[in-house]
Structure formats: C-alpha cells, structure tokens
Write a structure and sequence with these properties.
about 180 residues, alpha/beta, Purple Acid Phosphatase, chain A, domain 2, 6-stranded mixed β-sheet, 5-stranded mixed β-sheet, 3 helices, about 15% helix, globular
C-alpha cells in the first residue's frame, strides 16, 4: 500500500489539483489530508487560486480515497460541503504492525505527544515547516504546507511505501528519506 500525505492546502485550487496529479503520478492508494483543507486562516495570505468551494468539489470526487483530520482553520461549515469526515482531531491507521497517528499539529505535536508506543509514528502539519525527529523510539514527522511553506521549506508532500517515508518537492525530487 502507498499513502500520499499532504498538509495545509488552505483552499488553493491550484495546489489541490497538484495533490491529485501527485496522487496519480505516485500511484498512491490513499490520500491523507493533515488539516487546513479549505480555509486560508486569518494569519495566512490568500492562496494561489483560492477557491474553497471548488477544492471541496474536487476532493469530494475522491472521498473514498481520503483520510482527513481537522486543522485549526477547519470548521463545521467545511464539513457541510465535504463528503468525507474532517472533524476529528486525529485519526489512526494501523500499518505494518505500527500505529500512524495523524493529526494537524495544533493540539498534538512534538511538544504534546499523544499516547504512543515504541515504533509508532506521529504525522502532522500546522507549522508549514518540514521537520523529522525521533523521540523516545517514535518518529515525529511534520510536513510543510504544500501551499504555503515557511522558513525555507519547499512546497512538499510525503509518500509512505513499505517501511520508508519520503518527503518530496512538487517536481518529485527527494528532500528526505526516512527508513522507519
């Protein structure tokens, strides 16, 4: 199984289309959206081709392939237009004998760990900065925003395949490869 991870689209139709292009090019089975899907938030600039309604329409066509969690910019109004659940603060996937804890990062993050076991992986976004650390035998992977990266992080996404997590830029170049 191959899983595409994306964080912080913030209503950009341009980058939502990039997500689906990557989904097909990478031949992924599922898309994990780590929050902040439709709204840009009061602290962020308007995104390229900002169009939350069309982003919702686009992703709704892939509802059976999407696993999503709520970001700090996501709301009940967003859930009303989306055909897949987005209001959970976290989701858990069992993958090759370990738990993948999926969250946005505004509640659970490297400084506020959920209850995890050795070998589990915490995935989040929120800060818009790529960062990978290993803390207490748990990988902590923070993906930069695909739309609005910060602090010199490139527009990026992650691919989980077998026992590797690969962070790539939008051209498909490997930024970092983590053996899990």
């Amino acid at each position: 199984m191959k899983i595409l991870f994306v964080a912080d689209i913030h209503g950009s139709l341009y980058y939502a289309n990039k997500v689906l292009e990557i989904f097909y090019n990478e031949n992924a089975d599922y898309i994990v959206l780590l929050g902040d899907v439709l709204y840009h938030g009061a602290r962020n600039p308007l995104t390229k081709d900002y169009n939350p309604a069309e982003v919702a329409n686009l992703f709704n066509r892939y509802a059976d392939k999407i696993i999503a969690v709520r970001g700090n910019c996501d709301s009940e109004v967003d859930q009303m237009v989306l055909s897949f659940p987005i209001m959970s603060d976290y989701s858990i996937i069992l993958y090759k004998g370990r738990r993948l804890f999926l969250t946005h990062g505004h509640i659970y993050n490297k400084d506020n760990f959920p209850q995890l076991s050795s070998g589990d992986i915490l995935f989040y976004g929120h800060t818009h900065i790529n960062k990978v650390i290993k803390k207490d035998c748990i990988f902590v992977i923070n993906l930069a925003s695909i739309t609005l990266p910060k602090e010199d992080s490139p527009h990026s996404y992650g691919i989980l395949v077998d026992n590797k997590f690969i962070i790539k830029d939008l051209e498909g170049n490997i930024i970092q490869e983590i053996i899990l």
